[in-house]
Amino acid sequence: MSTATDLLVDGFNRVKETVHAVLDAASQDDLGYRADAEANSPAWLIWHLTRVQDDHVSELAGAEQTWTADGWADRFALPLQPEATGYGHGADEVAALGSATAEHLGGYYDAVHERTMTYLATLADSDFARIVDTNWDPPVTLAVRVVSVINDDTQHVGQAAYALGLAQRR
User: Fold this and answer.
1) What is the pLDDT along the chain (170 residues), one digit of tens a residue?
2) Domain range spanning residue 109?
3) How would DSSP label each residue in the chain?
4) In a domain, 96, yes or no
């Protein structure tokens, strides 16, 4: 692997550690906790970061998302479209994740993490400059897309940890 790939692997592994720290520390009630009716719960935040990672990395790899390919959409049985990642979700969609279990959230996250690691292992330094999205100016490279996924993951898992802290202090 290249130094760039090693750095990305390290970043995603750090996200994994924090996802599991949140899930290991949370009760079922904590996972569904929302500071107010419009706030995101720890469960929704972890589901959302996992869905975004699954969506983006699957697209880069040219593969079906783990969510549908491995039956996670059926296991969660959410009243959402299978392609939903959480973007634009309102209070009702966030509330739907209140019953998600740490087992399901962790299992889905681990499956996506494993696919991400497998994909990253296929990359050479020359791959990082490839344009993957021309809808932006400048166009988005593979490197920028993967870093944006890590950025999204770290923000959301930090929010989940903070929301868990609020839940445990209520």
Assistant:
1) 678 999 999 999 999 999 999 999 999 999 999 999 999 999 999 999 999 999 999 999 999 999 999 999 999 999 999 999 999 999 999 999 988 999 999 999 999 999 999 999 999 999 999 999 999 999 999 999 999 999 999 999 999 999 999 999 99
2) 3-27+45-86+101-157
3) --HHHHHHHHHHHHHHHHHHHHHHH--HHHHT--SSTTSPPHHHHHHHHHHHHHHHHHHHHT---HHHHTSHHHHHT-SS-TT--STT--HHHHHHGGG--HHHHHHHHHHHHHHHHHHHTT--GGGGG-EEE-SSSSPEEHHHHHHHHHHHHHHHHHHHHHHHHHHHH-
4) no
